[in-house]
Design goal:
Structural class: alpha+beta
Number of helices: 7
Helix content: 40-55%
Shape: globular
Strand content: 5-15%
Order of helices and strands: HHEEHHHHEEH
Strand order of the largest sheet: 2-1-3-4
Distance between the termini: 37 Å
Number of strands: 4
Length: about 170
């Protein structure tokens, strides 16, 4: 279903999603795996493309989780943060250079998002979230099927890059 198709019956689609969520019957659909070029490299990285309805539900879930976890994030963390981005990080680097710092360290952990263990992540989420339906939904998104071509598989670890929900849960890790 395209965004346009979803919007054409917006009220009906939102009511149905709301019903499924309230009844605890919502199940994420498989995400589509797409490989995209990694900037500055010949390598490619996996992108998980959720369905439109899953993106709507993930956005709603983000609205619930973000205020809970946002208060614990480091002040100078810029990735996947509301109202923050690359330009803010670069401004901070310039501020530090202006006051005399001379080193900048940039680190990229290979396949970090693809290797996050689900259970320790869920344990951390459970420390902050008590609502069983919310926890079940987060776990369902972590374990949703991935379709690559005509083959599907269920991940044992990791969060799909491209999913809305990744930014809220993963950034909370130490």
């Amino acid at each position: 279903m395209t965004v346009e198709m979803f919007e054409a019956r917006l009220e009906e689609n939102l009511n149905r999603l709301s019903e499924l969520l309230l009844e605890g019957k919502y199940r994420p659909q498989a995400i589509r795996r797409q490989w995209i070029p990694k900037l500055g490299s010949h390598e490619k990285r996996p992108l998980g493309i959720p369905t439109v309805r899953d993106r709507v539900v993930q956005s709603a879930l983000r609205n619930v989780l973000e205020p809970i976890f946002e208060r614990d994030f480091a002040e100078h963390s810029y990735g996947f943060r509301p109202g923050r981005g690359c330009r803010d990080a670069l401004r901070r680097v310039v501020e530090l250079l202006d006051v005399g710092y001379t080193w900048v360290v940039d680190a990229d952990l290979k396949d970090f998002f693809g290797t996050i263990p689900h259970e320790p992540l869920m344990e951390r989420v459970r420390l902050e979230v008590a609502d069983g339906k919310v926890l079940t939904l987060v776990e369902a998104f972590l374990r949703q099927e991935v379709m690559e071509g005509m083959e599907g598989w269920t991940p044992d670890e990791g969060t799909p890059q491209g999913a809305v929900i990744r930014s809220v849960t993963v950034e909370h890790l130490p």
